[in-house]
TrEMBL record, chain A:
Subunit structure: The system is composed of three essential subunits: KdpA, KdpB and KdpC.
HAMAP family documented for this protein: KdpC
Alphabetized UniProt keyword annotations: ATP-binding, Cell membrane, Ion transport, Membrane, Nucleotide-binding, Potassium, Potassium transport, Transmembrane, Transmembrane helix, Transport
Signal peptide range: none
Keyword Protein transport in annotation: no
Homology family: Belongs to the KdpC family.
Membrane topology annotation: Single-pass membrane protein
PANTHER family: POTASSIUM-TRANSPORTING ATPASE C CHAIN, POTASSIUM-TRANSPORTING ATPASE KDPC SUBUNIT
Function: Part of the high-affinity ATP-driven potassium transport (or Kdp) system, which catalyzes the hydrolysis of ATP coupled with the electrogenic transport of potassium into the cytoplasm. This subunit acts as a catalytic chaperone that increases the ATP-binding affinity of the ATP-hydrolyzing subunit KdpB by the formation of a transient KdpB/KdpC/ATP ternary complex.
Record-given protein name: Potassium-transporting ATPase KdpC subunit
Domain of life: Bacteria
Subcellular location per the Swiss-Prot or TrEMBL entry: Cell membrane
InterPro entries assigned: KdpC (IPR003820)
Organism: Chitinophaga rhizophila
UniProtKB/TrEMBL annotation, chain B:
Organism lineage: Bacteria, Pseudomonadati, Bacteroidota, Chitinophagia, Chitinophagales
UniProt keyword Cell membrane present: yes
HAMAP family listed in its UniProt record: KdpA (MF_00275)
Subcellular location: Cell membrane
UniProt-recorded name of the protein: Potassium-transporting ATPase potassium-binding subunit
Amino acid sequence: MKKYIWPSVKLTLFMVLVLAVLYPSLIAAVGKAAPGKGKGETLSVNGVVVGYENVGQRFTEDKYFNGRPSAVDYNAAGSAGSNKGISNPDYQKTVQERIDSFLAHNPGVQKEDIPAELVTASGSGLDPDISPAAAMIQVKRIAATRRLPEHRLQTLIADQTHRPLLGFAGPEKVNVLKLNIALDTLK
Amino acid sequence: MNSEIPGVVCTFIITLAIAFPLGIYIAKVLQGERTITDFLNPAERFIYRICGIDPHQEMNWKQHMAALLSINLVWVIYAFLILLFQSHLPLNPDGNPDMTPDLAFNTAISFLVNCNLQHYSGESGITYFSQLCVVTFLQFVSAATGVAAVAVLFRAFAEKTTEKLGNFFVFFTRAITRILLPLSIIMAIILVFNGTPASFDGKDSIVTLQGDSVQVSRGPAAGMIAIKHLGTNGGGWFGTNSAHPLENPNYLTNMTEIIAQVIIPMALIFAFGFFIRRKKLGYVIFGVMTAGMLTLMIPAMITELSGNPVLHHIGLKDAAAMEGKEVRIGVAASAYWQVMTTIISTGSVNSMHDSSMPLSGAMQMLGMMTNCFYGGKGVGLLNYFIFLIIAVFISGLMVGRTPEFMGRKVEAREMKIAAIIALFHPFLILVGTALSAYFAAHHPQIGWAVQPASWFNNPSNHGFSEMLYEYTSSSANNGSGFEGLTDNNIFWNISTGIIMILGRFIPIIGPVAIAGILAKKKYIPESAGTLQTDTVTFGIMTYAVIMIIAALAFFPALTLGPIAEHFISY
């Protein structure tokens, strides 16, 4: 083995230079041409950054469309899922509490109509999206809070809905932050 | 829901469409034939010259293994030292601390062996310097090590009787310059244009629309996320890996990442067939592996798509199994990823496996227990080769002929090695799980920093699954986890560290040794009495051997974990 050690050391140093220095620098340089300059795409309101398009944030107020439950309360410096198994009694209790809370905030909604994603924690704790159905079910509450007609909110959701990739691949989704920014502009 | 299944089918078709031509290309690269990347020749000659490598020196299998172990030894020391002192090194805008010695031990081994089990969280436990110089670097070189090891197998069966099996450093270098690095650059650019960060800026502080102050972790992640998939490594930049919306921003990147991790393992199977000029054998192996993949994929897909029984029980109409999953990815693409990432030893995740349905959890574990359906970079085919040799031996006994594979007699010595390797993987998993279960059951309050009683995020059978999964993932060098387990403590860092390193090198040395020994033997031309190994019948035989060994070894453990949980929950 001894005769291979020295070439190994030299090859290692060379590869560190190529793979850990040149390669990431190249990608960072190319990234400058990408949207957000490779730093992550931000969204602004009146010139002030209010968040990252791809990083979900906490919406708990009734006047906003709420996102999904998060195991880390949308801490974008420490992502995590709940890692709860379905047989865990604590988990079953948590889900029931989320349902009760949702019903309390959304009078008139029937329990069985609540979409699953609104009572289950996301994988990252930072899920930026909800499905169109999960937005629609909140329309009544927001219309009442903001005194807006429901059909305008429904149109807004339709406008903000991302179709599946190429029309057939993957789920439909609505970015909650974008939706709420657009919601704030409705008069 | 209607657009989810087509997305998955489309993903598999694209994977196959890329893997086949890539296989032709990889065969040529390893043979040293002319390819479109020949403009790299001068660069490679330069590398050999400054490193003092003679590219024309042919090695036998022992020299190959000596070179492989030497360079791996250099890497593990290098990685361990950097992780231990990372807070004193540059590129640490977030001010993250040094790793503790046990965590650095675990992490250095984990990335060295292509496992990428992570007992730290990317946002708070590692610096940008370590992410690049340790993690990204090892992701490239550990993948190239796997390719270089399987190349020995290729060479052993390409010629009639030979001891000259190519040069380890040449295989290794070409795997990086001509396969991994070019593909990584393409993929990283796709990611960065879809929203994955690539700049060196540290955390950003913002005030959200609702008025909360939050910090957002970032970093030069795109390059690392590319190689983590292409190299079947799987370690995430962020804590939640590819479930994180910056690591995997949309459905297109999700497809790209899941395609990227499967193409090279699949391409290597085709490359094997082309290299040894027995294409049909390559196709039969591919067929068996695909059948194995479907055996796990179909039950996992059905159980995930049929929803979460807790929500059914409460009475929701939409009871989709969304716990631990992301809306932009959806249930079907998450289930597809869960199975793929466990059969091919990547171990990156786009959903939290700990929260998947019990039966799909069982399929994930079985994927790692068999560990050869497509399999990891290089090592998947090496594992498969062990089962192939066992199948040859058993078939030989059944029909009353001397077992032969590709014109060489399979004799006692090779069979002993094959049997040891086949039993070693279950041995590591079950002994590890038994040990941890012993402490959890008999010494739950032992005076450790983290007591065994507080290891688990879930009680009962699911808690057992968390331990079983952790050791299965370690031994299979997979790296995914039931992440509820509290694993950053001395017991888990050391025990999984030891299992990872044994689970890497023994299953590489064993099959390479068999190939080397067989290659040296006298070549017997095929005759009417030869057992044909490139037939469907023999493929079914191999499949049966794999499944029977897995069932005998693991069924009891799986019964205590996910299978029991399934019957409790439904």
